[in-house]
From TrEMBL:
Gene: kif6
Protein name: Kinesin family member 6
UniProt keyword Methyltransferase present: no
Annotated PROSITE patterns: KINESIN_MOTOR_2
Compartments it resides in: Cytoplasm, Cytoskeleton
Keywords: ATP-binding, Cytoplasm, Cytoskeleton, Motor protein, Nucleotide-binding
Species whose genome carries this gene: Sander lucioperca (Pike-perch)
PANTHER family: CENTROMERE PROTEIN E (PTHR47968), KINESIN MOTOR DOMAIN-CONTAINING PROTEIN (PTHR47968:SF67)
Length: 689
């Protein structure tokens, strides 16, 4: 929104529907203005004005980047610090929940909170070398009060009902555990994104025209984070839930029946329980919070009250038709903003790490004792001992943990050997090569040193010559009388000039060699510095491009699956209409309903090159071919192929007739008037005592 227009009014044909004021000191306010003549049939026809306050309001022009920066980043930061975090999107069907949480499927810039948060988290991990982070991802779908694991690879070949159900278990400390929900480790952004797309595609595959999963189910994408200081036994675990709730449309309005009514009832009930929990949390001195009433509230138990920073985004399609839904969404969001949490750091001690640390302490104390009591040895190290020390130094250098120590015991021979080894490695190209083994490093070093050794030998020989000449000239080994005689002798000797000339030249060459060597060293250092600079400036861009390429590839893979599904739906519809109008096409057989095969390979996700898309083959069997042969379309003579060709032509004609043979495109979405609101529980943080 342009700055000079901080107050915005959107108009229906003649009357304003709502106005936004983002400039208020306490946050932002949204006011619905219901004209008297429109009030009939709305939530409360006695009122004409409904005003709500939120932390911030985003209109339809808001960019995904803005939503991430304002809403998701603060929550991600608190999760990085060790607190739990939840962002959930609430709103009526089609108002932009999935768009906000996951993102649009067309453009990279449309990616939503999940991919942006993942990117941000992994970026933070790489920048913070003082901590060791491990991440796992889970993706849960709740449909009709039953939980399913969206990362279960069996999704491709099974119906939703046949998949294992996620079961809630509670331990004696009332902690919730979810059986049959997989936690998949994701070492980097790419792996986490693959898991997100795997889950989203599984969600899409499970959809049938009767079960539009994205509309009728709740989805919870969770990042489980574990953070510890290197060498420390204290772990900090935190969770980030990113929740795409089912459409909040009220049953009374939807006028449904059958399966859709059942679904709507489940959704309304679970959102009702969610609301109850929220109300209970916002009431002071309330001891019982009814989490157990629904699966959604049970799963989100540690993410709504208690130890969590909860943020809610309410999405609305703010046009006249959706006014009652929008007001009801606002009321819900308003109640959520009343929750006050006391977030506590999730610190715990890892017993295995604690034992390892204590063992190291005992060992180090033993070594100190040996040093103090002077237990020293002076025999030579054996070959085995040397090999063992080489391995130890290698492990020490390869360990990325900056706090790692090299435990050698109180044996000075070992300590000295390791120091010498480290020096050799250090001198090898000025730095240790963690990739190469220590032995390799030593060998490489000796190769490298060979040249240097030759040079030094030459210099030494040169010096020796000089010295010898000096000795020769001064003749210190001679007696005094002889020395005098020798001096007189060589003064007139014919070779004296040559000798002195050689001496001068040797000095010059020596100085020249030293100069060249220094220059070469300088050049080497400059090259190394330059290449480091170039590497640094290009690597960031390359990383960003790689992520973008990966994301776009995943988007296009998902689009492929969607097109395939849409085609199948369209083809089935056309086939059934052809059945009605043309007795020549009697039945439809679907021979293969498998969409994917060979999904997850080496944890790479389902989009690796090896993935094959099995198209659904739809066969029309024509009982009579009379009509086929009369057709003006060139046919193949093969009964089944010809039936397919004619069915396709018929379907296409139907489509063209319907669209008036033009390219008119009717767009029915109301999101052009969409709005996203941000509100979250006011969280005071304090450390666990
Ligand atoms: N801010 C936006 N900018 C552009 N397109 C949007 C925006 N919000 C939503 N859309 C589009 O509107 C359509 C409906 O949005 P979306 O699927 O996110 O709604 P939803 O609330 O998740 O619906 P459902 O409850 O059915 O899952 C989608 O095609 C989506 O791409």
């Amino acid at each position: 929104m342009p700055e000079h227009m901080s107050r915005v009014q959107l108009f229906t044909l003649t009357q304003p529907v709502y106005s936004v004021d983002n400039d208020e000191k306490t946050g932002a306010s949204l006011e619905f203005l219901v004209p008297k003549d429109l009030a009939d049939g709305f939530v409360n026809n006695k009122r004409e004005c409904y005003k709500f306050r939120f932390l911030k309001l985003f209109d339809q022009a808001a960019k995904q980047e803005e939503i991430f920066e304002n809403i998701a980043k603060p929550v991600a930061d608190s999760v990085l610090a060790g607190y739990n975090g939840t962002i959930f999107a609430y709103g009526q069907t089609g108002s932009g929940k999935t768009f906000t949480i996951t993102g649009g499927a067309e453009r990279y810039s449309d990616r939503g909170i999940i991919p942006r948060t993942l990117s941000y988290l992994y970026e933070c991990f790489t920048q913070d070398s003082s901590m060791v982070y491990t991440t796992h991802v889970s993706y849960l779908e709740i449909y009709n009060e039953i939980g399913y694991d969206l990362l279960d690879s069996r999704h491709e070949g099974s119906r939703l009902e046949d998949l294992p159900k996620v079961v809630i278990m509670e331990d004696p400390d009332q902690n919730i555990h979810l059986r049959n929900l997989s936690l998949q480790q994701s070492a980097n952004e790419e792996e986490a994104l693959n898991l997100l797309f795997l889950g989203d595609t599984n969600r899409m595959i499970a959809e049938t025209p009767m079960n539009q999963a994205s509309t009728r189910s709740h989805c919870i994408f969770t990042v489980h984070l574990c953070r510890r200081e290197p060498g420390s036994a204290t772990l900090r675990r935190s969770k980030l839930h990113l929740v795409d709730l089912a459409g909040s449309d009220r049953v009374s309005k939807t006028g449904l029946n059958g399966q859709l009514l059942t679904e709507a009832k489940y959704i309304n009930l679970s959102l009702h329980y969610l609301e109850q929990v929220i109300i209970a949390l916002s009431e002071k001195n309330r001891s019982h919070i009814p989490y157990r009433n629904s699966m959604l509230t049970s799963v989100l138990r540690d993410s709504l009250g208690g130890n969590c920073m909860t943020t809610m985004i309410a999405t609305m399609a703010v046009d006249k038709r959706n006014l009652d839904e929008s007001i009801s969404t606002c009321r819900f969001a308003q109640r959520v903003s009343l929750i006050k949490n006391e977030a506590i750091l999730n610190e715990e001690l890892d017993p295995a790490l604690l034992i390892a640390r204590l063992k190291r302490e005992v060992q180090s104390l033993k070594e100190d004792l040996a040093m103090v009591t002077g237990e020293q040895r002076d025999d030579q190290l054996t070959v085995e001992e040397i090999q063992m020390l080489e391995e130890l130094v290698k492990a020490f250098l390869n360990d990325s943990d900056p706090d790692v120590t090299l435990s050698l015991g109180p044996d000075m021979r070992k300590i000295q050997f390791c120091f010498s080894l480290l020096k050799v490695i250090y001198l090898h190209d000025g730095q240790a090569s963690p990739a190469a083994t220590v032995r390799e490093a030593v060998i490489q070093d000796s190769n490298h040193s060979a040249v240097e050794m030759t040079r030094l030998k030459e210099m030494m020989a040169q010096r020796d010559n000089e010295i010898r000449l000096d000795l020769f000239l001064s003749g210190p080994q001679l007696s005094m009388g002889k020395q005098e005689a020798f001096k007189t002798f060589i003064r007139d000797h014919e070779d004296l000039l040559t000798i002195e000339d050689n001496k001068k030249q040797l000095k010059q060459r020596s100085a020249e060699a030293r100069g060249i060597w220094e220059k070469q060293n300088e050049a080497k250092n400059r090259i190394s510095k330059l290449s480091q600079q170039i590497y640094k400036s290009t690597i960031d861009r390359l990383k960003a491009l790689a992520t973008e390429i990966e994301h776009l590839q995943l988007l296009s893979e998902r689009a492929k699956v969607k097109i395939q599904k849409d085609f199948q739906k369209w083809w089935s519809q056309e086939a059934s209409s052809a059945q009605v109008t043309d007795l020549h096409f009697l039945y439809l057989s679907i021979t293969n309903q498998t969409f994917y095969s060979g999904c997850v390979q080496n944890g790479k996700g389902m989009y690796a090159d090896t993935v094959k898309l099995h198209y659904t083959h739809v066969h029309f069997r024509a009982l009579s071919t009379t009509k086929l042969s009369n057709s003006s379309i060139p046919l193949t003579g093969d009964q089944q192929a010809d039936a397919d060709i004619l069915a396709f032509i018929r379907a296409r004609e139907n489509l063209l007739n319907r669209t008036g043979n033009t390219h008119t495109h009717t767009h029915t979405h109301t999101h052009t008037l969409g709005m996203r609101m941000h509100t979250h529980a006011h969280t005071r943080t304090r450390r666990k005592k």
